[in-house]
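Our collaborator T.R. sent over the components below with a one-line note: 'Predict the complex.' Nothing else. No constraints on interfaces, no templates requested, no preferences about which chain binds where. So this is a plain run: every listed entity goes in together, and whatever single assembly comes back becomes the starting point for the next discussion.
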Amino acid sequence: MTAPAVPAPRSGLARPFLRLRVAGYAFFLPFLVAFLVTVVAPLAYAIYLSFFQDRMIGGTVFSGLANYARAIGDALFGAGLLRVALFLVVQVPIMLLIALGCALAIDSGRLRWPSLFRITIFMPYAVPAVVAALMWGYMYGDEFGLVGQIGDALGVALPDLLSRSWMLASIGNMVTWEFVGYNMIILYAALRAVPEELYEAAEMDGAGAIRIAWSIKLPALRPALLVATVFSIIGSFQLFNEPNILQTLAPAVITTSYTPNMYAYNLAFNGQQINYSAAVAVVLGLVTVVVAYAVQLLTARREKTL
Amino acid sequence: MRTLPSRVVITGAAAALSLSLASCGGGSGGGASDAAPAAAAPSASAAVQDALTKPAELTFWTWVTGIEKTVARFEAKYPNIKVNVVNAGQSADQYTKLQTAIKAGSGAPDVAQVEYFALPQFALSKQVVNLADYGAGALKDKFAASAWAQVAINGGVYGIPQDTGPMAMFYRKDIFDKLKIEPPKTWAEFVEAAKKVKADNPDNFLTTVDPGDAGGVDSMIWQAGGTPFKTSGESNVSVSLATDPGVKQWVSTWSTLLGEKLVDPQPGWTDEWWKGMGSGKYAVWLTGAWAPNGIVNSIPKTRGKWAVAPMPQYDAAQPMNAENGGSSVAVIPQSKNIPAAVAFAEWLNSDPEAVKSLNEEAGLFPATKALLDDPAFRDAPLDFFGGQKINQVLSDASAAVRPGWQYLPFQVYANSVFKDTVGQAIDGGGDLNAALKAWQDRITAFGTEQGFTLSSGG
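Returned assembly:
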């Protein structure tokens, strides 16, 4: 009965602190549950599966690291990795440069309808990848597709964009179309975070638009560019939807091991080699992590030396 | 089912049951009770008949368009059973889902469409019910031999044949007439016809060959007398793509056609391909008897321009044919009501009313002898084919199918890597023999890894 009259200073401090901790966990819990159930558990299960071998005759046996040894020496897997690596070094810089240009253009304030421009560039990202692949696949057709019709109208024979030599470039074009808007938004958001005073100060110092872009906007964009690059690296290694859809149009060009993800998918679902497929997926994940981390380290080091 | 007297249901022998079912489907079931002899009935097959009268709900995975109409007839006849028709994707897409659901232990349908080429794989891994345990062996004589042979695996019966695809040559009569080409009776004549088409217009081709369609090439090899895949017992597999004489026959003709660019290595079923079929860029489609449905629906403007002839032969004195495609309906062990599922699968594919509906309302080419031999079916002229009685050609094509062909117990995988190997040579003009050897190597490596004993002998 006396307690409310004389509030103890100790408990007065401890209670909010305790409440804060509980509240913190309470906020954290939904994410934690979702994270454990949808990320950690499947990953752990895939790693677990990768240590076994399931045969149609003979059932499941523990095989240790055999699946990993095989994956590392697997020529089909290696060729797929090289292919997506090539895709990465060509497509990602092109896509990010275009996205950068678009973001700077919107931010410059010199466009007539900046939000229309923004939404138009972003729109392809809202198109499901499967639909996009079907649509582009149709347009690429060299006989009756858009490309073929343009060629006919101009009276020239345009190259078959679904042929062996053009396929990777055609997929690169599709992916660029899809993701320029997405990266543009990331970069544009970073640009919006630059304090207005910086621009004012630069203007007072007599800097023009190009000088401002070079000396203020680009340095400010560096962290966002890094994020976009890392996302794009992951996306490149995970390349699947576009080639998988185009496969029906060019089955001999896009083999079952065209990209590492397609290889893992076909192993698991056409060959029922779920265990080996899991090992391939884990190795692919590790390669992605290593490459993404290396890029991050390199950028960080360069930032230090600057 | 209410019309079928319960005495039949309980006491009928397997053979008589299918008879009584047949008469039931034929019209009123009133007289069926007389058809039931008092012979000892396998209890399982009695349970199958019994199931038709009890309330049940079945899920049926199929990608046959229009099959809902046939299923509705079943539900009208047996109102206690509700069948949910689900399209879970086509072919390999559906098998992926099916195998995943079976592995997961739940989520699989009671009944599923499984193509003949994939059935051995499901049968071997016990992912489909052996219907012989439920008396389905008694249905054997109802089906064309070539159809039944594809569901009778390792002494069991793993599916009920639904439709078949005896191969035939679908050709553009208008183009043949214009170029004065007679439908080729032999493959040598086929090559000559291809040269004529090419000479007339270098952009046109007699036909296409799909570098991604293993099934098409499997069937062509079958038609050439090949048996490159053999399974004995549960684990002995022989693959002889590099040495089989039938394969060699196929290679000799098709390496000429491909090497001289007389046929177009164009993937089938794509927009480009259908447009080529409609525009007259291609004049021939060598395929299964199910093709008319696709032609009529996809390129309706070619009405009246098509005709059908038997497949070209390697030896005209000994005509041989093959099956291309076709599906069975299998029962999944996960089903909570296997007898009802079996009863449904049997009715759907063997009842005269059902098979007529499958043919007329779903466009399937029949698997039952009764319909294949039915004069009303055989002698019907089809307007789309300029009034030709094409079912005569196609029914005869069914009878000419060469027995003895086998698919691998892992044909789904083997077919999936066809495009990585043989497809490369078809598309890029490479050496077919080397490509077939590469395919054999991929198949052999996979089979060995899966615990099979592989040999390359014939």
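Summary for T.R.: DSSP finds twelve helices and two strands in chain A.
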